[in-house]
Write a structure and sequence with these properties.
two-stranded parallel sheet; 12 helices; 12 strands
Length: 392
């Protein structure tokens, strides 16, 4: 990390063909970053791949990004670069807007492909269902999950490939070390994943890139994949669509539940990347939604604990949104049993937040320090996050 450098330099952008993959790599501010693509793809080295990590470092230090190689970036994207920074700065006023120094061009290769980012979760399955007849390829990126268990990536990839084959789609798997770069520099990875998907899409030259939404319009908040941010990474040739904000998580689940093939391939687990444990909050929320609807997923086991609702204890507003959606689903389906359990959890959380805010108000600065003991969010130590380090 070259903290004293007047620019964040991107150099040595190369494409290398290896035995099992082709790799595009570059040196970003002194660190090598690489992206590995399947051999069957026809790609060229694209400087846009390295804009995301370079931009974060640039905005933290307030110095320009300088792409020193002769490899041009999209002229359209270069013109939107400041707008991208403006969105990020609106979420975190510690960021500094800094210029981009790069050569540009307008004409790049393009295909008729329509690519959908696809992990097998609720969001991506919902988007796949809506565009199933148009989609040509599914994209799975290794960096987005925790693959700490033996062969978990291979098992997940095999499941996604089997589903893609059953739907007459091709699957593209991409690996990258950008998460290690973000961790080393204390950048929240959740700040960049939508932008990262976008630049990977640019490199694949599709006509359309579909990025499934993580949240609905009513639950939007500063987040690395966002309808304000993702489409700004589009180029002259590739249109980027952030899809699914019009539907809540329960509405997406209802849509998927009407198609048993889509339902039975769901992979929603927090604990495992290749099967569903049935016990974590995401598994429990999904299984409860399906139980309320009278549906079953072959890959999602029934909860076995004495008190499965204990795992749904809330720690943040995002979890609250999802439980409130489930309460509304209970009301629509006249399920008073599950509703009473969920309302108890919500009530407990709101009481906790109430007293937490009272402590902050009465104690002032000591209260804020106390609040951090209860809410140990990553942005208090991150160099780059979706929230200002000064915000409490």
């Amino acid at each position: 990390m070259a903290e004293t450098s007047p620019t964040v330099d991107v150099t040595g952008i190369t494409l290398e063909h290896c035995k099992d993959y082709q790799e595009i790599s570059a040196c970003v501010d002194g660190d090598k970053i690489w992206f590995r693509f399947p051999l069957f793809l026809e790609i060229e080295p694209r400087a846009e791949l390295f804009l995301v990590p370079a931009m974060l470092e640039s905005m933290v230090r307030g110095v320009p990004v300088h792409i020193k190689d002769d490899i041009e970036i999209s002229d359209q994207l270069a013109h939107m670069y400041r707008e991208i920074q403006a969105v990020l700065k609106s979420w975190n006023d510690d960021f500094l807007i800094a210029p981009l120094q790069a050569k540009t061009r307008k004409n790049f290769p393009v295909t008729d492909n329509i690519i959908c980012c696809f992990s097998g979760g609720i969001d991506s399955t919902y988007t796949f269902g809506h565009f199933r007849d148009d989609i040509t390829h599914l994209l799975l990126v290794k960096a987005f999950e925790n693959w700490d268990k033996e062969n978990s990536w291979e098992k997940n990839m095999a499941d996604r490939k089997a589903f893609a084959l059953s739907q007459n789609k091709k699957i593209i798997t991409v690996d990258t070390n950008i998460r290690a770069y973000c961790d080393a520099r204390k950048f929240e990875f959740s700040l960049v994943h939508g932008s990262l998907l976008s630049v990977i899409g640019i490199t694949l030259n599709p006509k359309v890139m579909l990025i499934p939404s993580s949240y609905s319009y009513t639950t939007l908040h500063p987040h690395g994949s966002h309808p304000l941010l993702d489409p700004l990474w589009a180029t002259e040739n590739t249109h980027i669509i952030h899809h699914g904000c019009a539907a809540s998580r329960c509405e997406k689940t209802e849509y998927i539940a009407e198609d048993q093939i889509l339902l039975d391939q769901l992979q929603v687990c927090w604990k495992s990347s290749y099967n569903n444990c049935g016990e974590c909050p995401k598994c429990l929320r999904t299984s409860l939604a399906l139980k309320i609807m009278g549906k079953k997923c072959a890959r999602l086991p029934e909860p076995t604990g004495a008190d499965p609702y204990k795992q749904l204890a809330l720690n943040d507003a995002q979890g609250l949104y999802f439980l409130e959606e489930l309460v509304e689903l209970c009301k629509a389906n006249d399920n008073t049993d599950i509703r009473s359990h969920l309302e108890r959890i919500i009530r407990t959380f709101k009481i906790k937040v109430f007293f937490h805010n009272i402590a902050k108000f009465i104690l002032g600065s000591p209260g804020r320090k106390l609040s951090r003991l209860f809410r140990k969010n990553a942005w208090y130590t991150a160099r780059a996050s979706t929230l200002s380090n000064r915000v409490d």
